[in-house]
Amino acid sequence: MTEHVASYYAATANPHAPYPALSEDIHCDVCIVGGGFSGLSSALHLAEAGYDVVLLEAARIGWGASGRNGGQVVNSYSRDVDVIEARYGAATAAMLGGMMFEGAQIIRQRIDRYAIACDYRPGGLFVALNAKQCRHLERQQANWRRYGNDRLELLDRPGIRREIASERYIGGLLDHHGGHLHPLNLALGEAEAIRGHGGRLENNVYYLQGDSGHGVTFTHLAGRLIAELLRGDAERFDAFARLPHLPFFGGRQLRVPFTALGAAYYALRDRLGL
């Protein structure tokens, strides 16, 4: 059986045994393929609602990016709601904006309800190197407050010193709705919660999916939306489904080098304080 990739998270994972391999025909209400956060969140929402759920995974629960990411509970989407509003209109922004803090709420509720030991620490910090970046954080605070996040604290120079022992930053924005956790232990805990509701987890099926950037939080929201869809309520799912999914110009041959170039660009911006 495929083991978790060697990492800090695998080395510090809570004790867990592999799930049995699928060896016979089985019947269920819903079969979910993939034991990452999207699949786990969908399965748990459905199991909580009383569905007979089977989750199939080719390797181990949380084997891919779900079990070896940065563990940051970051709110919003890969494009913030003001960009969504400018491109797709106020109605779409209002619908998506009303959901953009929901993923983190789901995570905290799961941790509390199922006593998942995943080293959750509340609070996420956006830091500023100069006055221009401080003004951007002020705009960010006002923007997120429009959609219900009232737990954003602007920090001046003394305030940022209380959070980070560094002279490099002159200010910051503390998001008390954000946080950090052990992603693999969260995934393993959610798998056990599914079993606690009578759900079944089996190995043997191959599947590939990706959700980067704000994946830890957004996948938990996506799981709820998929569960709502399967129960017959498509309104919130359709708000995302209507957004165009544009292919990357040039395909993989250009996507990989341009992704690396983009990472280098933003790293340079950080160093220069732009």
TrEMBL record:
Residues 29-204 form the FAD dependent oxidoreductase domain. Gene3D superfamilies: D-Amino Acid Oxidase, subunit A, domain 2, FAD/NAD(P)-binding domain. InterPro entries: FAD-dep_OxRdtase (IPR006076), FAD/NAD-bd_sf (IPR036188). It comes from the Bacteria. The keyword Oxidoreductase applies. Keywords: Oxidoreductase. This is FAD-binding oxidoreductase. It comes from Serratia entomophila.
